[in-house]
Amino acid sequence: MSAAESDSQATRLQSTRPVSQRRVDSVDPATLMRIKNLVLRAKTVVEGFFSGLHRSPFHGFSAEFSEYRPYTVGEDLRNLDWKLYARSDRFFVKRFEDETSRRCYFVVDQSRSMGFDAQGYSKAEYAKTVAATLAYFLTLSRDSVGLMTFDQTIADYVPARHRHGHLRQLMICLERAVAGQGTDLALPLESIAATIRKRGMIVLISDMLTPLDQMRTRLGYLRSRGHEVIILRVLDPAEIDFRLAAPSLVTDLETDQEMYIDPDTAAADYRLRFDAHEAELQSICNDLGIDFYRLPTDGPLDVALFDLINAQSRRGRTVMRNRGSRGPVASVGGSR
């Protein structure tokens, strides 16, 4: 098989597995949130994810998952693992030693707006579960994970490590995090940039409901330092699809300001403002080479995990490693 033929076949294999081929028995997030222990909650999601791999195009790959990465067109064909290809029908490359351990920091928004609850659980609870799930998953892959939680100030900081007991320390910090005060996204980004000396991956988990005037500068500085950045925007479906059955008195969660809203006149204006804000955020991410995903809180987390990894691998990236996107915002793990 020539190099050109192999590259062509690899491209086809990476693009013929639609994200819609998912498990139909995913754990409902409302059921998942009833599990009080965050470690058990994260393990439930990851175990469901690996169970899904056995019924997905990744069948036969889960046992060696942390040792390989998807093949990128143009790489040396001598690095391909043909035995794994025979079992999975996909091209994978053995990860080199310097790829098998990286630092990942989760920067988790715990401001008051994250306390919004229209699903029986808050965005803050969903965000904590996302962070716990990804931290648990990456720990299985022998990566070092760290944590920063914030509202208007930095609440907790856990340096990225990979050693016995470290994941539990991180989970304890997540479990005690509660929706606090207003949002200052510039502060944690400035703080994490000043704290991290070596290049790593930074996953910002937030509703991003904040003015974006300083975001380009702060995110740009992180990228200039060589950090990979992924933004996971956690939103309640009620925030995405604004609906009020009748005129209502609503309260701003962060300022306590009350406002009387007529849904007939407010809905269109809300949609315009929401779309403009998200378009600006997407533009910032596109310009800086940052991946931007929207996570609705009604989305099963094992599906979201699959979508994230699948989206990364279809772009020819190492699992959960970012090289920058240029497309519209992707919504992962949401209702179908």
From TrEMBL:
<dbReference type="InterPro" id="IPR002881">
    <property type="entry name" value="DUF58"/>
</dbReference>
<dbReference type="Pfam" id="PF01882">
    <property type="entry name" value="DUF58"/>
</dbReference>
<feature type="compositionally biased region" description="Polar residues">
    <location>
        <begin position="1"/>
        <end position="19"/>
    </location>
</feature>
<feature type="domain" description="DUF58">
    <location>
        <begin position="67"/>
        <end position="279"/>
    </location>
</feature>
<protein>
    <submittedName>
        <fullName>VWA domain containing CoxE-like protein</fullName>
    </submittedName>
</protein>
<feature type="region of interest" description="Disordered">
    <location>
        <begin position="1"/>
        <end position="24"/>
    </location>
</feature>
<dbReference type="InterPro" id="IPR036465">
    <property type="entry name" value="vWFA_dom_sf"/>
</dbReference>
